Amino acid sequence: MSLPVHATLAGTQSGPATDPALDAWRQLSAKQQPSWQGSPEHARAVAELGTLPPLVFAGEVDVLKSRLAAAARGEAFLLQGGDCAETFEAATADRIQSRVKTILQMAVVLTYGAQMPVIKMGRMAGQFAKPRSSDSETRGDVTLPAFRGDIVNGYEFTPESRVHNPARMVQAYHTSASTLNLIRAFTQGGFADLRLVHSWNQGFMSNPAYHEYEQLAGEIDRAVHFMEACGADFEALKRAEFYASHEALLLDYERALTRTDSRTGTPYDTSGHFLWIGERTRELDGAHVDFLSKVRNPIGVKLGPTTTGQDALDLINKLDPDREPGRLTFITRMGASKIREALPPIVQAVRDSGAQVVWVTDPMHGNTVTSQNGYKTRRFEDVMDEVRGFFDVHRAMGTVPGGLHVEMTGDDVAECLGGADPIREEQFDELYESVCDPRLNHAQSLEMAFLVAEHLAHR
Ligand code: PEP
Ligand code: MN
Question: From the alpha carbon of 331, which atom of ligand 1 is closest?
């Protein structure tokens, strides 16, 4: 990350063992928590996390907040992407590299379309905890605890693997640390070079299935050559800021990594730069909203189709009482068939209140269906229809479409249906890898970037 020098030195001393404000959530109802409270292993894991170094620095988090403030004003665009659920096993150099590469490729296309900076953020280096609609899973005549993400239990369908094991929190920390280390190395060490990323995009365009995007790809190519001819400083374009984000679901983990910033004496959750609250845990009086109201990071909240304008205003008052620029992001996930009715009243209430948030579309979580052969999937056309609805609503209301939140991977998996070079459900048996929700594969992700770029160019 390129940061002001003082920021790298700031912040992140360990916090006090207990703090009345930071621990108020413990008295509130916390949904989706593991059943390991009270065990000696749990106490040991939490104590260990409390002694480990922070994963991010408060100064970096502040820089991100200022970038998000620009997105709220329509002067930047957020691209947030990665796995539904990261796994320990898949935290390999190749997998991390292909995801970072795909996000960088998407970002170049979006930057050209938007003609403004794109904030690059992974659902990476900490996206290990999953909310579930059921506590258990039944296969045949066997019922076991549901998989809740590698930070809680294992995906393998055996009693041993599905036990909630608090030592996994420590492993999640170390896996996040090594993932973030590699991301920092790539994005600071030359892998984010604009000319390199552009050459990858040209490789993608060599597939005739994408001829629809040739004009835009050609324009980007000419723009890069124009910059070259003008003697642009490509050295300066070798590095990229890249931020880490995850759903702040497991409050023990988030609390243990919350530290006092030595510059300001205020608490930052140092498990990631940006944390979001999921659709299932966003009750106003619940533990998640309370805890995240106490830390200084930029915060996201997922909003599903049952959200009212008043819900949105209540969340703003609780999470952003000072109306701090860049503090709050609303990530709407309505479903393609609902967004055009469900989003306007929420946007209107927020707009009329004078509050400013970053409006981000998550076109994945409202569009999950089951394929005929029994896989959880999403159709590319539904996903794109929700994106179109998002842009249409904001254009009609005079508000700012500030970002895109997607479940994607850099690998050639088959999990979502369709796209110009279509994925078919017969490919699922061989190429479906996700342990949770279906992700766009490498090519579908890039195709989406081209389509969103067109919307950004014409908004
Ligand atoms: C997710 O982002 O993986 C998720 C569970 O989303 P939501 O809270 O919007 O359902
Ligand atoms: Mn998901």
Answer: 9
User: How far apart are the C-alpha atoms of 318 and 284, rounded to whole Å?
Assistant: 8
Residue 237 neighbours by CB under 8 Å, 6+ apart: 193, 194, 195
Quick count: other Cβ atoms within 10 Å of Cβ 158? 10
Ligand 1 nearest-atom number relative to CA 123: 2
Is 219 annotated for ligand binding?
Answer: no
**Residues near ligand 1 with C-beta < 6 Å?**
84, 131, 247, 278-280, 302, 333, 365, 437
pLDDT in tens, the chain (459 residues): 443 333 333 344 454 578 999 999 999 999 999 999 889 999 999 999 999 999 999 999 999 999 999 999 999 999 999 999 999 999 999 999 999 999 999 999 999 999 999 999 999 999 999 999 999 999 999 999 999 999 999 999 999 999 999 999 999 999 999 999 999 999 999 999 999 999 999 999 999 999 999 999 999 999 999 999 999 999 989 999 999 999 999 999 999 999 999 999 999 999 999 999 999 999 999 999 999 999 999 999 999 999 999 999 999 999 999 999 999 999 999 999 999 999 999 999 999 999 999 999 999 999 999 999 999 999 999 999 999 999 999 999 999 999 999 999 999 999 999 999 999 999 999 999 999 999 999 999 999 999 999 999 987
Domain 5-192+239-457: CATH superfamily, name plus number: Aldolase class I (3.20.20.70)
Q: Which atom of ligand 1 is nearest to the CA of 405?
A: 2
Say how far apart CA 317 and CA 295 lie, in whole Å.
15
Q: How far is the CA of 283 from the centre of ligand 2 (A)?
A: 19
Query: Is 437 annotated as contributing to ligand binding?
Result: yes
Residue nearest to atom 1 of ligand 1 (CA): 84
**213 close to 450: Cβ distance less than 8 angstroms:** yes
Answer whether 0.70 is exceeded by the pTM: yes
Residue nearest ligand 1's atom 4 by CA = 278
Q: Which two tokens stand for residue 35?
A: 């059943």
